[in-house]
Amino acid sequence: MTGPLTPDNHALMIEAALQGVGLAWSREFAVAQHLAAGRLIRVLEDWTPACPGLCVFYPANRHVPASLRAFVELIREWTG
Length: 80
What we know:
Blueprint: H1 10-18, H2 28-37, H3 66-79
């Protein structure tokens, strides 16, 4: 393959980086195991802003759907 690769799928972007195709921008939690194993390395760390975590926004004056409540609870459990 020649030319640029611009995937619109996060898993594909990480896989391309693992295969040595180029750089990938990702949240640390999504690639933590690859970083720990040395399969990926951080680059431009001094230029990367800190991100305190995930945020979910929804209208406070509306009923929160059960699916959104379940999603928020899953994220809370997943991130500890």
